[in-house]
Amino acid sequence: MRRVILFAAMALLAGAATAQLPGLRKRDPTPPPAPLLVGIDALRADFLAKTGSDIVYFGGDASVLTPQAQATLQAQAAWLRQHPEVAVRIEGYADLSDTRDHALAVGARRAEEVRSYLVLLGVPAAQLTTLSWGKEKVAVLGSVPAALALNRRTVTVLVR
Amino acid sequence: MIARFTSLGLLSLALVAAPAAAQGSVAVVAVPPLTTPDNSSRGADSPAAIAWQASQLIASDLRSTSELVPVGPNQKDYYSYPEVTAPTFSRWRAQGAKYLLTGFVRSNPDGRFTVGCYVYDVAKGRELGRIGFAVAGGEWRRAAHKCSGLAYTAATGAPAGLFDTRIAYVAETGPLNARVKRIAVMDSDGTNQSFVTVGDTIVLMPRMAPKADALAYVSFVGGQPHIRIIDFDTNQQRPLVPTSGMTFAPRYSPDGRKIVFSMQQGPNTDVYVVNSGGGLPQRLTASPGIDTSPSFSPDAGQIVFESDRSGAQQLYVMNSDGTGQRRISFGGGWYADPVWSPDGAWIAFTRRIPGAGTRIGVMKADGTGEQLLTAGPGDEAPDWAPSSRELIFQRAGLDGRPALFRVAISGGEARRVVTPQDGSDPDWSGVID
Question: Which residues of B touch A138 (CB under 8 A)?
Fold first, then answer.
């Protein structure tokens, strides 16, 4: 029953058309349910639209949140508080100029910093996991400072 | 699939005389073709064919060092079977050789071959050492590597067996922002390459056990990066420690019984040690910050590691129980990836110098005597050759693709280590037996 309420709440919030939920119609045959926001792709699209970005950037070797990063995370936290059923993984990255071992730890430190900040803003801790990619999966190639800066990031990934 | 080496039958091994060359000088070694007692057989698997290929391999091994320059093998330098143990020294003196390597390949009634090698000081007309093996036909390469090691040890005093070693690394393919990575292992001369993992998940930091009979590496399989151990005898693999957190930066102790590594908990990363067979990890560092890249001293009494507890990454040494932590690097920029040399004298590292990228260097274990060995700007991840005279490391090309290079700590240009694909995270095994 809780799931039904949640999905109804999501539908009201988002109003985006997605697939029907199997089984829902049997319990509540009339009126036909409004289009529900259920697919993970639709959730991700809504998350991006409402929060502006799933990425925050970091300076140098740091894991300190800039004012801009805090603003992005505040928007993310607002959305996540309204979607407590959505599991989220914070993925941390370092740039290519870092050494491989240290990069893994720095990616984890950035992801943990974001996680702590989201919890501080009222997102349930159980909703959030972290993962570091170190200097794997670079977003932008190249060794110029601007390219390196775009790789020092965390990405908030909606898992399910 | 990697089959562990079968043991070579050791026939005889005389002690090698004291080193005859001062370290740092370059000496000429004559490597005439190994001879055979009977040259009537000329087939592809004949003693003569193996003798010629083994001679070429020995010369190639010695050429790969920075201390020895081989001359040969040339067919005109043929010598008779009795001359293996009674060389005509004047002939090699005339070629300017300081050392001479002679030897033979003989077929045995059981179908195996005997490979024997002798090393001489040409000026003194004196034997410096000899070595011999009975091998199956396909194993002559290992015997030839042992012959190379005999010459190298006689000339430099380095430990025996240096050419019969393995290199593990990460083989990379695909676009730079979505690389397929596989753990590869090859003989240190670049032959016998095989893949240990299949490329379905990102893998990093292969680190072989001292005898190359097992390998630790970091895998993203299942999500969280964690250390896994592959036993090459059984081909079984398992996580090093059962934890949901991130574990990485593994390195074996010199006796292979322990593994020192990093584990992340929240924003903090510390150094731990655990028996290589598993068990409860013991925490060795507790500072807030990132403590990683640990490496044992050869007597296992100390561990060098990097920490950013002072703000930037610097090198620290501690006792192997975690006590007595002290900083040993104080230069500008930062220092990372420390690795203790097998002879205990040096610590290799990656150093970032602001505006100049990353370079490979060495310092003594007390932090003095720092030298930078490479020009950068994208050099990292050094590991020691078992001779303690050379380092293998990873260098990013101008296009960003990584390749393996080696450089002598006595100086000189870094040289490319040829791999079939791009290579990163190199690891050089110890002497296998």
Answer: 176-177
E-strand ranges in B279-333 read 282-283, 291-296, 302-307, 314-319, 326-327
pLDDT bracket for residue A30 (50, 70, 90): low
CB contact under 8 A, B267 and A131: no
ipTM over cut 0.95: no
How many CB atoms lie under 10 A from the CB of residue B272? 21
Query: Which of the residues A98, A102, A155, A157 would you substitute to probe the B interface, choosing the one with the greatest number of B C-beta atoms within 10 Å?
Result: A102
CB-nearest partner of A104 from B246, B267, B400: B246
For B306, the closest chain A residue by CA position comes to A102
Q: What is the SS3 assignment for B135?
A: strand
Residues B9 and B74: their CA atoms lie apart, in Å, by 29
Report the distance separating Cα B312 and Cα B185, nearest Å. 34
Q: What is the CA radius of gyration of chain A?
A: 18
The residue of B243, B290, B398, B424 whose CB has the most chain A CBs within 10 angstroms, and thus the best one to mutate to test that interface, is: B290
Residues of chain B with pLDDT under 50: 1-24
User: Euclidean distance between the first and final Cα of chain B, in Å?
Assistant: 21
Dihedral sign, Cα of residue A28, residue A32, residue A36, residue A38: positive
Q: What share of chain A is helix, strand, coil (3-state, %, to 5)?
A: 50, 15, 40
Q: Where are the alpha helices (DSSP H) in B108-224?
A: 140-156
Quick check: B270 and B283 in contact, CB under 8 A?
Answer: yes
Beta bridge partners of B226: B219
Q: Could you check whether the bond before residue B377 is cis, i.e. omega within 30 degrees of 0?
A: yes
pLDDT tens by residue, A74-128: 999 999 999 999 999 999 999 999 999 999 999 999 999 999 999 999 999 999 9
Are B358 and A99 in contact (CB < 8 Å)? yes
Within 10 angstroms of residue B376's Cβ, the number of other Cβ atoms is 18
Interface touch B269/A139, C-beta < 8 Å: no
Q: Which residues pair with B350 in a beta bridge?
A: B336, B360
pLDDT at position A24 is 46
